[in-house]
């Protein structure tokens, strides 16, 4: 039978955002949800969803009503991160650095964190082959997104994660150790080894997706085999703070950095002194410029890569441009002492602004070839199948060309790709997925990464999809739980970002980093008759935990004792860890959002996909795959409320159970939804709308206790007219009203991210507020403070932030002893009962903690981090 294709992911969720030292990005309405994303889904359905969302994600290079070059609409995925941290205005560089310093100056609570997800996470776990699992797809063991890779010929491999720092292996992969935990940014943009063997790290992920953080600059490690990065190892001054770094390149005694604020250079010999700004196409939009506070500033100086002529390092080509298109997009080279746009003589490689977007270069070791991947804004905006313009080679070895096209998306689709359906073909996310490298021993042996991994051994005349998107759809695939992926070989996880070639014990390997972590295969590896590699190995052995959780849920494990822990992840579904597990499984696929787990039974759980698409199971979604021939054997059910279908919920929308009654659930979109059947719910029709927040408004936080419900909302949610509010009412539909919150007043006009209700008094509630205070944010009503308290059911609020550093707050929970724990973008803080001052909880790296929850007996606090897995700490240690 044909393979069911059921990967639950919104195909174009990813859009530019900024977090660590934020610069606001204009954003608008979320794309509507075209029906349920669950169940057996054909690629045609996936393609239809992409087409529906495409217009909402891609700012076009045509003037809008405001005279700008970008449309206002960007996917809600970006809103979830960027809007929450920037609104109501623009955040000045340095905000996160100051917050990190402030947190480090807090006294500690005592106690220490324990990572409970530092073990293998098998995305193909045969226990969980229910209707909405991706198990048997072929990705194997996974971890969080890897943005960059580096490797040497001594068996050392370096993996730079999106939000969990840089990791080192000295065994050709595996047995990883973190080496950047002391830095104020754990977001990786670029990794590169120079000729002296030093490891360079550019912080700030440049994939322009929904949860990418800005960085704190560029760092260098002189002894990468043994040392660790420190703040003292930063190169230059603070010029590159609060930027993203797409690539680091070397030539002429300089290191070149392609950043979100132009192209910069620095001497590789003397590491002190300021970085030099080589080129910014729109310098007025840079910090300190006359248009630095413009809503479009973050788009106006994006640099993607630098190509340096190996025969003459003075000849440099810059690839510059915003992936959705802008007038400045193009290739530039220096002529007559200034940078000039290249307009002709390039051969097949386009030079028109509409056809130059995200670009990656790669040079052969012998200097005989230069290669390039080009994503086209025009294709992104008009072609439903792909945004890829092509892959090119300069056989002169010079980045000035002439360039010849050696691949396009149609040809790659025909070369063994899993993406062959209209609407979803190779390069459909080329603005997000790109890498390129050349075998050092063979100038015509090239690896290219898009959604999949492609290989050519003849300079581009022929290609093979050595790492297909998944194995669903291939004749070798089977859902048989006795096999990982039928008779297919393991592939890599989808969505490629980083690549490196290195040697271990004299054998060369290619290492790829993607949304599922790190994989390797021999450079001279084997392929089957379809061109798929037969020798990929996952290096995600559990010693590297960069899992990006949005949520966590905990319930008693009735079968094995102890507890069962679940959590929703970026592009890695939902993990489930039962008390007797040595390997975590994945019982839901795609992007995992919020999570509900019955404290009394950890197999009763609900997982949100996106836009309030909710799936419920009462057996942990254990299934042997028999549902594929008998639909009645499925044990997961789609129970999405109506705001999912209309697109009137946020990308990661709030979901909560009543603290006093786990059968009463609250979900927030435009409407406040209530259902009272608990985990026995089987249909979205069982939800009741108890309150309409109003057109253009959408819930950002919900909480309930004893039937009393609190809802935080925003609308508009971007920094153009941002507004927020609180609604309060009862789960039975009575008593609903909006709380009066003036634009300037006690509760700031910023994103309301979480409530924590006193378990002993439903009128006593705490509010966590995201973003930065007015010291960093230029916007109406930005105010001050991050934690507020009400003792009268939300009618009035008092700022209880006290000595809490100015850092975005994401979640809060009242501990059984009356203390208050708050999750922030840089760790967890705690206020002991009866006190007013805040303490830092443990010593987590500078990682965002998006949700806190207590275990069933209240003795353990669980922290869902977005980049370093799930951690626990005993509440009794918080003193």
UniProtKB/TrEMBL annotation:
This is Glycosyl hydrolase. Gene3D superfamilies: YVTN repeat-like/Quinoprotein amine dehydrogenase. InterPro entries: WD40/YVTN_repeat-like_dom_sf. One of its GO terms (molecular function) is hydrolase activity. Residues 1-29 form the signal peptide. Keywords: Hydrolase, Signal. The keyword Metal-binding does not apply. It comes from the Bacteria. Transmembrane segments: none annotated. It comes from Streptomyces sp. R39.
